[in-house]
Amino acid sequence: MKIKETDQIKNIKNFAFQVRKNILEMAVSAGSSSAHFGGALSITEIVSTLFGCQMKIDKKNPQWEDRDRFILSKGHACLAYYAALCEVGYISKEELKTFEKNDTNLLGHPVINRNLGIDFSNGSLGMGLSLGIGVAISSKKKKKKFKVYVIIGDGECNEGSIWEAAMAAPNFKLNNLYVIIDKNNFQQTGSNKEIMNVENLKDKWSSFGWHTTELDGHNIQDLQKFFKESKNIDKPKAIIANTVKGKGFSFSENNNDWHHSILSKSFHEKAINELKKNNFK
Amino acid sequence: MSSKKKYRDIFIQSLSIDEKKFNEKIKYNEIPEWDSIGHMTLMSSLEEKFSISMDTDDIVDFSSFEKGIKILEKYGVKF
Amino acid sequence: MNINERNIKIWSTIGARATLGIAALELAKEIDNLMVLTCDVSTSAGLDRFRKTYPEKYLDLGIAEQNMIGVAAGLASENFNVITTTFAPFQTMRCCEQIKVNLGYMEQKICMVGIASGLALGTLGYTHCCIEDVGVLRSIPGITIISPADSLETVKALEAAVKSETPSYLRLTGSSNNPIIYNKNYEFKIGKSITLREGKDITIFCAGAMVHKSLEVAKILESKNISSKVVNMHTIKPIDKMAIEEACNSKLIVSVEEHNIIGGLGSAIAEYKSSLTKSPKQLFLGIKDTYSKGGNYKFLQEKHRLTSNKIVEDILNSY
């Protein structure tokens, strides 16, 4: 049993390594168009755990009716999303190179394209959790077993529409709905504390009726443990994931300059070297 | 046909109530058929069949079969 | 739906809102995957009976319109046939961006119904009136906009919209005792205007509660030897271009709407008309870009010159 778990963790770590590699490739090819680097890196372990293990998906069929659904409400973190979809096999490495190019399928915010595994257009913050509720309700009405995973940002919690959704989900007893709050403590122009503080997220979500936990969003074991232990809890689940914006590279960690910026060739080189050295394996 | 019977028939027909279930003690919102939609349908039928046009206040006050009799009498219906 | 004289009369008495509830009940019988979503307005939209009869097809999202649209889109993405409804200003503007992203950008097929649009709730003030909805939604690509003229047209428009493939917005105007325009069943096609009265001097384009007024206006103008064509332009988007081309045979085109003259039916007509090489002048009748003081429906129609007498006056001044 212990060996199996370690293997599983190993696989997810590998997945995350590939995701970071893909993120770097897309960011450097975006060139002067810039990329939302920091917020994609903070969710890399989360996305890898979901697509690499937790979610029930069909690698050959992105539109499999019974797949678990994923919604990247903080759509600007799409580098991690596209990277993960590439690792799964829905998006080719060639297509990744078209990121933010003219006429591309892969813009700076996800655009719905179910052939590529992109289920919704996101990017205007505050809307994804409502979509998740609609999809989770559908699952129950169709008597299906698929689950819905929504990633939102901590800055995104400024939006009133998030709290409308937060209020609604427990009312509809959506025990098949998971929200993961990427608490990297920053939003676009500064820290949450500087711009619009979102204290006590755990208390807030818990008081709205969610089964809530707070954990290290880069610790794959902790993520796995929560998913396992909360499986049979009869409430929607909220994970306050403490993360580091720009996680994975010395120059970007907790540096909000990397919210949306150009990855020059030199930084790209630096990053590749660090990846190889700090190989998470 | 007596006004009373006509009145009863209008209730049964416009509210689509089962004749066996109908009784003269029924009140607005106490049976599922006499909800807000049922009420407007009933008022419309009464106005048409008795050739009257009721004031809004009377439509609002029309809260039971029995009360309705008093209201219709105001408009010249003889029971 | 049982479209007969008796029902038409009842629907007219109860008004378009309550008729919505009845129509939804009938549609639920034939459309298995129908879902109706509201924001704490079941009784205001005649949906109380629907809620009790089909609880599994009904969702109340509480006073949270932005969430309602997102939830609707989530359901639509999973092949449910969704109707959303609340008061027109909240249905269209509170959640406008959600409409843009979900219905426009993602093309999720949802039928939104804005109740009590126009000036009907004037005693509650302009927060509860809606003179902007058409203007706001017209600029979101891909959303069909329909303004039914009477309660029967409300039924037909709802059925057509629910059965169509594209997202739509139905704008319900008028109050109870909604005048009857159609006293028997007729063919309703989204995008195809209906000429209710032929005439050679003037063409009056109207929609919603202004259709009845426009027919009255045409009668009055006739007594003054002016022959007016009255066209029910129930579908404001996509607009019936052919009807506008035909109207260019008139000496004057008049648009009448219970909406700001900026952005609504009149603007939609003018946009197309201005691309034609030869067309007559257009008189825009509607609310002249202002929020007045409140008052009841009749009072506000007077104030905004949307009564048949005032409309006649304005037409005579322009003719």
SSE map:
The complex is a heterotrimer of chains A (281), B (79) and C (319).
Chain A (H helix, E strand, L loop, with lengths): L1 H29 L6 H5 L2 H11 L14 E4 L5 H11 L4 H4 L31 H14 L6 E6 L6 H12 L5 E7 L8 H4 L5 H7 L3 E6 L3 H10 L7 E6 L22 H13 L4
Parallel strand pairs in A: 1-2, 2-3, 3-5, 4-5
Chain B lengths: L2 H12 L21 H15 L5 H6 L3 H10 L5
Chain C lengths: L4 H26 L3 E5 L9 H6 L4 E3 L4 H13 L3 E7 H7 L1 H10 L4 E6 L17 H6 L5 E3 L4 H13 L4 E4 L22 E4 L4 E5 L3 H14 L4 E5 L2 E3 L3 H7 L4 E9 L4 H9 L7 E7 L9 H7 L4 H11 L1
Parallel strand pairs in C: 1-2, 1-3, 3-4, 4-6, 5-6, 8-9, 8-11, 11-12
Antiparallel strand pairs in C: 5-10, 7-9
Helix pairs in contact in C: 1-7, 3-5, 8-12
At a glance:
Chain B is an all-alpha fold and 79 residues long. Chain B is built from four helices and no strands.
Give a description of the structure:
The complex is a heterotrimer of chains A (281), B (79) and C (319). Chain A has eleven helices and five strands, in the order H-H-H-E-H-H-H-E-H-E-H-H-E-H-E-H. Chain A is α/β, with parallel strands linked by helices and 281 residues long. Chain A has a five-stranded parallel β-sheet, sandwiched between helices. In chain A, helix 7 links the parallel strand 2 (148-153) and strand 3. In chain A, helix 1 packs across helix 4 (78-88), helix 1 runs antiparallel to helix 11 and helix 3 packs parallel to helix 4 (78-88). Helix content of chain B is 54%, strand content 0%. With 79 residues, chain B is mostly helical. Chain B contains four helices and no strands. Chain B starts with a helix and ends in a 5-residue tail after the last helix. Chain B is globular. Chain B has one domain: Non-ribosomal Peptide Synthetase Peptidyl Carrier Protein, Chain A, CATH 1.10.1200. In chain C, the strands form two sheets. Chain C has a seven-stranded mixed β-sheet, sandwiched between helices. A five-stranded mixed β-sheet of chain C has the order 7-9-8-11-12, with helices on both faces. Chain C contains twelve helices and twelve strands. Chain C is α/β, with parallel strands linked by helices and 319 residues long. The mean pLDDT of chain C is 96. Helices cover 40% and strands 19% of the residues of chain C. Chain C has helices at 5-30, 48-53, 65-77, 88-94, 96-105, 133-138, 151-163, 210-223, 241-247, 265-273, 297-303, 308-318, and strands at 34-38, 58-60, 81-87, 110-115, 144-146, 168-171, 194-197, 202-206, 228-232, 235-237, 252-260, 281-287. In chain C, helix 2 (48-53) links the parallel strand 1 and strand 2. Chain C folds into two domains: 9-171, Thiamin diphosphate (ThDP)-binding fold, Pyr/PP domains (Rossmann fold); 194-318, Rossmann fold. The A-C interface holds A 112, 119-121, 124, 126-139, 141-142, 160-161, 164-165, 167-168, 171-172 and C 56, 59, 61-62, 64, 66-78, 80, 97-98, 101-102, 105-106.
